[in-house]
TrEMBL record:
GO molecular function: mRNA binding
PANTHER family recorded: DEVELOPMENT PLURPOTENCY-ASSOCIATED PROTEIN 1/5 FAMILY MEMBER, DEVELOPMENTAL PLURIPOTENCY-ASSOCIATED 5 PROTEIN
Subcellular location: Cytoplasm
Descriptive protein name: Embryonal stem cell-specific gene 1 protein
Length: 116
């Protein structure tokens, strides 16, 4: 995901100001953002609607991590945080497995008998 999407409005299910207090905050590896949220964050509105929470992505000083801030009522923001952390872990493991398969394939090519 090249640039982080900018927040333009507050979804109707978020109550102002009470749901904007005490957000849930966590960090995700930046390389997982596109897999989780789609190109340019196109899936964020859907995830917000399903979770009944509001998401805000913030760039950190380290380009390797992005901060995700979740606003909403207590139960919805905790559920959204859990869902997003689960998605991030799933995508991280999927990318790791892909890299391991690639590494195994490269090793197999280097070690094949006809190469010796």
């Amino acid at each position: 995901m090249g640039t982080l999407p900018e927040r333009r409005n507050i979804p109707p299910w978020v109550k102002v100001p009470e749901d904007l207090k005490d957000p849930e905050v966590f960090h995700v590896q930046t390389r997982l953002l596109e897999a989780m949220f789609g190109r340019d964050g196109c899936r964020i509105p859907y995830i917000e609607q399903v979770s009944k929470a509001m998401l805000e992505l913030k760039a950190l000083e380290s380009p390797d991590c992005t901060e995700i801030v979740v606003y909403g009522s207590c139960i919805y923001k905790l559920r959204a945080k859990w869902m997003l952390q689960s998605m991030a872990e799933w995508h991280r493991q999927r990318q790791e497995r892909g890299m391991l398969k690639l590494e195994e394939a490269m090793n197999a090519l280097e070690l094949s008998p006809w190469m010796k």
